Amino acid sequence: xxxxxxxxxxxxxxxxxxxxxxxxxxxxxxxxxxxxxxxxxxxxxxxxxxxxxxxxxxxxxxxxxxxxxxxxxxxxxxxxxxxxxxxxxxxxxxxxxxxxxxxxxxxxxxxxxxxxxxxxxxxxxxxxxxxxxxxxxxxxxxxxxxxxxxxxxxxxxxxxxxxxxxxxxxxxxxxxxxxxxxxxxxxxxxxxxxxxxxxxxxxxxxxxxxxxxxxxxxxxxxxxxxxxxxxxxxxxxxxxxxxxxxxxxxxxxxxxxxxxxxxxxxxxxxxxxxxxxxxxxxxxxxxxxxxxxxxxxxxxxxxxxxxxxxxxxxxxxxxxxxxxxxxxxxxxxxxxxxxxxxxxxxxxxxxxxxxxxxxxxxxxxxxxxxxxxxxxxxxxxxxxxxxxxxxxxxxxxxxxxxxxxxxxxxxxxxxxxxxxxxxxxxxxxxxxxxxxxxxxxxx
Amino acid sequence: xxxxxxxxxxxxxxxxxxxxxxxxxxxxxxxxxxxxxxxxxxxxxxxxxxxxxxxxxxxxxxxxxxxxxxxxxxxxxxxxxxxxxxxxxxxxxxxxxxxxxxxxxxxxxxxxxxxxxxxxxxxxxxxxxxxxxxxxxxxxxxxxxxxxxxxxxxxxxxxxxxxxxxxxxxxxxxxxxxxxxxxxxxxxxxxxxxxxxxxxxxxxxxxxxxxxxxxxxxxxxxxxxxxxxxxxxxxxxxxxxxxxxxxxxxxxxxxxxxxxxxxxxxxxxxxxxxxxxxxxxxxxxxxxxxxxxxxxxxxxxxxxxxxxxxxxxxxxxxxxxxxxxxxxxxxxxxxxxxxxxxxxxxxxxxxxxx
Lengths: 443, 354
Hints:
heterodimer, A: mainly beta, Pectate Lyase C-like, 2 domains, 20-stranded parallel β-sheet, globular, disordered N terminus, B: mainly beta, Immunoglobulin-like, four-stranded mixed β-sheet, 24 strands
């Protein structure tokens, strides 16, 4: 039997990768975000929202009265609504809470029903919108959701315990997620996905100075392109940063991404036994991600992982795996896209300060143009002889059985949570200021 | 220092600039003309897909890779405007004189700056010239270029000399025939791929070739590429020296500044240091509308024809490489020998230890 068929059989049998929780929600249909940013020009007004004595008592009413030239300032308080910014009329709109103290401007979803309960803030088809300085929690779908647009700015946000993603951008070009925090989200804290391919000129998405912890995934990027994830902290998630290829969304594979200068540690949150969120139901068609991985490239291309500190992840600090469930796809384009190509892993520091990973790097050597240079490695690798970790400019060499070993060690059965830890190599963590390890949630 | 007024500047050989944008040709004689051209550049729409009536415009090209044994030399370079002091010491050490106050010598420059992968952060200071790109024969130079300017809001590019590229990577605005890399708008990114071929050996400039390239190169949007034979060691001392100028129309000052690498007057321009016995190479490039000469006191070298020279001439975007083994210690002056150029800042120190 062809190797990939063996793998697919193994994977299907054991249910590897990929929750599909987001698909269960009611989302606006994707559309082309366009070719040019549609910034509104001219001077706008400032509309003020507060619970008493301002022009508007709800944020949505201010938005209904605004155009893209305007700035809406929201004073501190608790707002119980689902906010929608929809259409090009709002190109350029600024929705400003308290950038210094975002938790003072709470958008609360608990108790809401219908459309309002879905997202704290939905931006759909409105370019160049800024949302700055808000705290959202308890929405059924997402805390902050930008879709079908260009050049959003999501800044100084706190996203807690929404139904899928904390801060989420989909089918969009360009944009920034900055200075924000996401925790206790049952899919990922931050997500950028289905980035439309942009031939020639392109707009880059920047995720910078964010903190993501206590989520199933710290960062997920299904078919994400041209995105830089940098200077951020990813810890206490099931897995830290996971660009991935799925055919349930368009524009596969993930490509052209940079993951640089992040602190990726302690991603060993086994949420299956207990979690502060509703654990995603895994159907037979779904494949759960492994628990205990810092960075997982699942079917990536032309992605650079550089200058990160990766420590204390019990399964592996970094793993590169082709999108195994698609290697045998009947569409040859899908099968070809599932292969790892042109990924560089450079100058990363694994297991610094005595905070060792279970394994530092796991890569089977498959694909082409995947290279490793200047990394500081302190724990074992898979394969153990490091033969697949070739320098740039050197042809990739497949290590027999390495892919099976990597997949096997990451497999688990949600009904038997301990199985996700069966292949962990645990090391004690040195103390970190203000952070405690989260491996099992105890309320 | 004598303040060079516009009349003096013109009398001294300066020229008014011609900029063509959006179907209009503007004689740039004053800062208000510059503002007009900048506004036109910012408003210029992205070129529509070319009509492609000519077969050459239908050609598609593959992205080259390195030759066997060659490398992929990757750079992340952003274009942005910065506040730039033309003479930060405030003094001309050669003529021992005070220069105009900071407010009258600080301009809005347009520069190329090297960033970390993914444009996460700048890794070199923003300066003139931009980063020097290095390659050996057989390599490809991959430049991820991003237009990060927020002030002028114009499309810009990177256009190289010397290396080989196909039209996709020309980095030139060509009106209706512009390809993607010839019009990179603010917040956009384009990846250029250039080949270092055997006939690329040498030092070459790169510069903006977008729709407003005349003004933007005068603002500092240029840098250098150095290509060596495979395995060839660099000289002991190597510098790129751009000879260029900041005309009053562009700076808004009454004074004209002639500059070396964005700075004017000895003590501000690069001070080059060497020791006797070292192999020295200076790549001198013209980057304005003038012809310049390059003279180093106390030194001679051979030109490309084998003749000894000490004051060769170079034109716009031309390179001369000055190479010699150092044998003459002391403090030396280097300068352009065109009198108004040297007197308005195009001079610097060359210090040789025994």
